[in-house]
Amino acid sequence: MSSRELRVSDAEREHVVELLQKAIGLGLLTLEEFTERTDVALASRTRAELNVVLADLPGMMHPEMRVRGGQWNRPGRPGYAPLPGDPMVLSSGCGSSITRNGYWPVPRSMVIRSKWGSGVNLDFTEAVFEHDQLDMRLEVTGGAVTLRLPAAASVSIGDLNQRMGASINDKVGYQGRMGTPHFLISGDLHMAALNIKGPRR
Questions:
Q1: Do 98 and 127 fall into the same domain?
Q2: How many CA atoms within 13 Å lie on the side-chain side of 6?
Q3: One domain, residues 58 and 77
Q4: How many other C-beta atoms can be found within 10 angstroms of the C-beta atom of residue 59?
Q5: DSSP labels for 161-178?
Q6: Which of 16, 40, 65 is the last residue in one of the domains?
Q7: Which domain holds residue 150?
Q8: Packed helices 31-43 and 10-25: angle between N→C axes, nearest 10 degrees
Q9: Which one-letter DSSP state was computed for residue 82?
Q10: Do residues 81 and 35 both lie within one domain?
Q11: 72 pLDDT more than 70
């Protein structure tokens, strides 16, 4: 049985209603849409049914799939939530780099680890996505991470911790909009830069 078929509890339904209330505050839903989706959420029996009301809302999901970033997102910490699926792990050490481009399969989740590397360059414009959302955890110290995304993509970085002069440069405006695939980025960016770019012209 897949996780989508598992039954949901009253607490999970209530959590999703809280997320829908936040969506109203962000201007993502009208009051009428909120009412309709709340009715669906409260009548949901499975995770698949429950997640339908959040599917087009960037950065919002069932608590089972929630990823918290930084120091809290480590085993043994309160509130720890592992990444969904079987994460692809890409690592580089001092002076080395990580590069992906062209046609390559993108899993449900990824972990990017780089400490004083020469750069992380991930081009998703020709990649094949297995899911509508990619959970990406950054564990990066020094250097820069450059993500080149498809034109219709969207990004949430609410769970990404920026430390010691870290910076984020969204050159296209992927944050705060609705789009697919959705990149949910968490983790730690320490003395490093995250550059978010669109397709090459």
A1: yes
A2: 7
A3: no
A4: 24
A5: EEETT-EEEESS--BTS-
A6: 65
A7: 70-197
A8: 170
A9: P
A10: no
A11: no
